[in-house]
Automatic annotation (TrEMBL):
This is INT6 protein. GO terms for biological process: snRNA 3'-end processing. It comes from Ciconia maguari. Pfam families: Beta-barrel_INTS6 (PF25462). The lineage of its organism: Eukaryota, Metazoa, Chordata, Craniata, Vertebrata. It comes from the Eukaryota. GO terms for cellular component: integrator complex. Residues 123-263 form the Integrator complex subunit 6-like beta-barrel domain. InterPro entries: Beta-barrel_INTS6, Integrator_subunit6. PANTHER family: DEAD/H BOX POLYPEPTIDE 26/DICE1-RELATED, INTEGRATOR COMPLEX SUBUNIT 6.
Amino acid sequence: QLHLPLNSPLPGSELTKEPFRWDQRLFALVLRLPGITAPESEQMTGVPVDDSAITPMCEVTGGECPGRSYCVCSPRMLNQCLESLVQKVQSGVVINFEKAGPDPSPIDDGQVDISRPFGPQPWHSCHKLIYVRPNPKTGVPIGHWPVPESFWPDQNSPTLPPRTSHPVVKFSCTDCEPMVIDKLPFDKYELEPSPLTQFILERKSPQTCWQASRVYVSNSAKYSELGHPFGYLKASTALNCVNLFVMPYNYPVLLPLLDDLFKVHKAKPTLKWRQSFESYLKTMPPYYLGPLKKAVRMMGAPNLIADNVEYGLSYSVISYLKKLSQQ
């Protein structure tokens, strides 16, 4: 059996429920080399699955496809496995993508739809990596917007509640127009190939997208359990990969407001506009204030959000997080 310490001595480990972070994955090469080497047959038909105690842990971290670790029986097979692993070790983080609501309507391409399968499909729930490419100059990945938490931060709490390492991101299969406006930053992450990316690419509709939202724990937020959308899944124009676009929180409400601010009001907001913006800010998790301030400053409205606005975290949590990031 594989016994893992649930209380890791590493700084910050109490922030996640599991003994690993979303950017840590485990791959297993289990060596079962016989004492006497038999002459290797020329034909190698893949590497067998190993059913040792380490296999489920690989699966949990997103390191391998379900229940898969390599059972290595010969030196030649070891080389093959190492080459395969080198291709899999990409920088990124693991996310659970889960379908919310009904399946999409079939694409009408003149083909007769032969018995659409009922019940859960592999693409409905995927535990997969999004590639987070480091900045070529600094080696550090740069993202503008966070992925929302599954809780609403309590300003009076001296600590943060532990969260699951892999966030659950729900996507709805309703076709939407991808939204972008001038100068507003967004982040774009490619999804690791999976049944979900295959399903989206087979639909051959690169001009539409599916919205992604974060699940809120009951009564932890000021609104419904399913949070507001923070991004969307979209096939690339060349239909060779699927990307997750991460936008500001509840962007379908914010983007038209910002568009009006610059195109209609020329960066001089009216009282009515300010009221709409204030009511938007009330539904936005407070840790989005920093990135939003930076974004509107880049867009040409430096004084839109007051400097004394609270960030929704207690002083002890803010100073602890600063200390952790230095460590």
